[in-house]
Give the backbone structure.
Amino acid sequence: MVTSIIAVTAVQAYWISSAWENKEEEFSLAVSQSLKSVSIKVQEQEISDYIFAFQQLIDSVGTPNDSNFTDVFLFMDDDISSNLTSFYAFGILEEDYNINLSEFNPALLDENIKDYKKVKTTTILSKDKIFNRENRIATSINKLKTVERMNLYDQAIYRSAFTDYSSAIPIHIRINSKELKLLLDQEFNDRNILTDYEFGIYNNGLATKVISNNYSEKRKGPKYEMPIFTADKDGSNPYKLIVSFPGRDQFVFSSILSVAGLSFFLTLFIIIVSTTAIYQIIRQKKVSEMKSDFINNMSHEFKTPIATINLALDAISSPKSQDSKNKLAKYVRMIREENQRMLSQVENVLMISRLEKSSSPIQFADIDIHDVIDDAVRHIDLIIQHEKGEINTFLNATKTKFKGNLNHFTNVIVNILDNAVKYSEKKPIIKIGTADSENGIELRIRDEGIGMDLSTQKHIFEKFYRQQSGNIHNIKGHGLGLSYVKKIVEIHGGDITINSKVGFGTTFTLKLPCF
């Protein structure tokens, strides 16, 4: 299960990473296409404006001083079925107005104003008249001639002339920031690139005056560049349009947020469910082990009194014992004590079950904590004397009354004292103290026994749990005592905490409300 979780998480992480990279590539491609389109539009718009101005100038000058064909192209086509021959002539007519451009603007080049027109001629001849001996000149059946202004966008000579002219003009005169931003906005919007950007045109690596309002030399985010304007005569292109996107990562992230978020949520859900399942499996395994220990301990605890009762019954059955009243009384008392011992153990188990189900409500009355302590000490005193230990009391509380159940709370203190005796390798030394607290009474029971590590302290109040040191039967018990203690204290509206260190003993602190 853990391997599957790791594999699923790794696959989802890889998928999200791949989606991120794909979106970045898609973004970069869209930006490059936008910048290329902007560069072409700027170039075409500039040449278009130049041609328009140039044509207006030519139209205002009047008729040209000189005209001649710079190039002529001839084509011939025979049509056998109609007995006709067609001649096609295409030419470029150069018209020189003999006016220098510098006369209009000193900043312009020292060249004459020239215009170029396309001339088309179509002549259709009859074949039988081409070789007429009487008239060697062919007779035209139909002759068409057109003269029109050339498509100046496609003429290299205009472009070359304008390139030479424009290369001497500062970039901020050829295009301004507002025009460039308008074109960029249009292209970016068409490609759904809806994030902030900064731009600037660079000349051989140096920033020009054509920059965005938020332009900074230290650009944040990834940058993209594209050559802009026609190359110079030597083939170099000094101008580059550079655009940076400070918020690109956020924009790319937002584009995959919905799908990636759903994937992350489902993966997290799988991890939580699987982790919970693993935790429950481990917890149930521990509970199963504790229940098995409990059954083993119960079996061991019942085996001894049952064996004792059987021996006593065998002894009573003996004729010798029947003749002695003292022996009969002794064996009967032994049977009664062992039977009471088993009954007490069963009552402890049933008591925990009733408390958890709340099927038997506890009756409360006004009791004194010091009286409860004295009663509990009397119950445990014989055991302490047998172990040659001692119990010291420091009853300093002034507010000693509280609402509780005398029998149950006596059992609480007896259980804690009994554990202090059982888990002491030396003579048990126990200190019991009371003091006034902010909201009631504070009771502390300290021993100098073997103590507990942190792991044991976390589970000590759990049902069936027992500290395991060597053979689990070395110390008798069912793992129910402290679980019962905590339950009773909580029913009384109190709180119990533990402070212990291995080799230095344990301190139980009970806080109870008083009146």
Summary: Residues 240 and 444 are 83 Å apart (CA to CA).
